[in-house]
Structure formats: structure tokens, C-alpha cells
Amino acid sequence: MTERILKLGIVGLGRAFTLMLPTFAHDGRVKLVGATDPIASARAQFEKDFGAPSYASMEALCANPAVEALYIASPHQFHAEHVRLAASFGKHVMVEKPMALTVDECSAMIEAARDAGVHLIVGHSHSFNTPIRRTRELIDSGRYGAVKMIHALNFTDFLYRPRRPEELDTAAGGGVIHSQATHQMDIVRLLGGGLVRSVRAHTGAWDASRPTEGAYSALLGFEGGAFASATYSGYGHYDSDELLGNIGEMGQAKNPADYGAARKRLQGAATSAEESALKAARNYGGRL
What CATH architecture applies to the domain 127-281? Predict the structure, then answer.
């Protein structure tokens, strides 16, 4: 029996798509059939690489009958609007994390998908990583007893990597709460049993030149009695991947001497436009 191929459209050819592209390209069950992005060079690169059309507007992509489902990797502040639009065209959706900026937006997205009879998946990724899944399997085996305490700890230079202006604006979905807490919560909820009954947390916004939250510590209590502490700092001059033998989150070996390169690149940007260009240069399609 021939395996069914999912015909996928891409909303946003930025950083998330850059990281997901190897997975899409190597999975024979997926075919990229269209894309939309505001950057013309990224659209041209997509057409060249995949022989598929690209569009300046999401409406045009949604109107393409070849598109069965959409991978929404647009900036955070557009997720709610883009999911509702996709649903109105009858397209299934996988939306990148964070799902949206408010609980009300998330509820509206769920309602839109339900009313349209389409599937909506929020693409938290790390709980699908093999080491995390294996840890959950070991917990389920009962060989080591019930989980009681979980500790999640990350120190990175997240806030000092080149950013677009909205990534430094909490109201637009910027900062580590929207971008990084979603990963930690995804993992600790899988390992801790899922349902959280209490949360106590502190956040830190300590650099006026990067005016958003760059750090947090949270204590979560689960219904089953386990609890988890989760700490993240994006101000770090220390890279916590050293604790894991300098192996990065994608499984790649890291050279400790390279840490700090992002700060050095940032020093060369005199304006927010120049900083945005630095970020774009690392993504699919290259420079602005």
C-alpha cells in the first residue's frame, strides 16, 4: 500500500522553518507545496528549492487547493490570527510554540478549528526528542519508582543573539517566557505527569537595552504530588550545555570557545534594522 503524502504549506520562512527544514526534507511522507513570507528573497529561494509557488500573503497560500495543512511559523503575535485564517479555509494546522500570547487567543484558536472541523496541533518539539521520550518510558516502567522532583536548568545568551524588535517586546511575544519557557514546561509536564495544580514564579528583566524578560525561575506542583523547579537565564555568560559535555539541544557537539560569538555580532549592529538583518542572514533565504 502506497504511503499517503501530506501536502504542506509554510507560513513564515524564518528561524523556526530553518530548523525544521531538514526534518521536512528527509521525511518522504511530507511534500512542501507552497509558502508565504514577507521577504522576497526567502520566497525566491523556496521556489528554487522546491519547485512550488510562494506568496506575499497568507490568504493567497490558503487559497491554493494543493495545500492540505499549514505549518505556521510566523512571529508569535500573528499565531492566533493565522490559525483562525487557516481554519476558515479548511486547512489543518500545526502552529509553532508559543501557541499564542493570551489564554483568550488560545481558546479562540481552538474554537475556530473545532468549528471548521480541522485538526490543530501546537508544535512543542522537545517532548518528542528521543532522550525525553526514553526518560518517560523509564518512568512508566516503574523500575525506579514514582517521580518526586524534577529540575530543569538552562543558562544561555538567548537575549544577546540578534533579534527583531518584537522579540524584545513582551507584549508582542518577545522574551524568554514566550520563547523558552514553553520548551521547559513541555518537558517537565511530560515527565511530571501532565496536570499542574500550582505555579509560583519570578521573572527578571535586567537590561534596559533589551526591554523584555530575560530570566525566570518557577516552581510547579503536579496533581500526583511531584514538583518541578524550572530556571532559565538568557543573560548567561555561562553556557549550561557544559554540564552535558558541550552537547547542544540539537545533539551537536559545541566548541566552548565559540560561546560569546552572538554578543560580538550584536556589537556590530548600530540600529534595530541592522540587528534584524543580522538575524535574517542566519535564516532560510539569507539577507533582507
Answer: 2-Layer Sandwich (3.30)
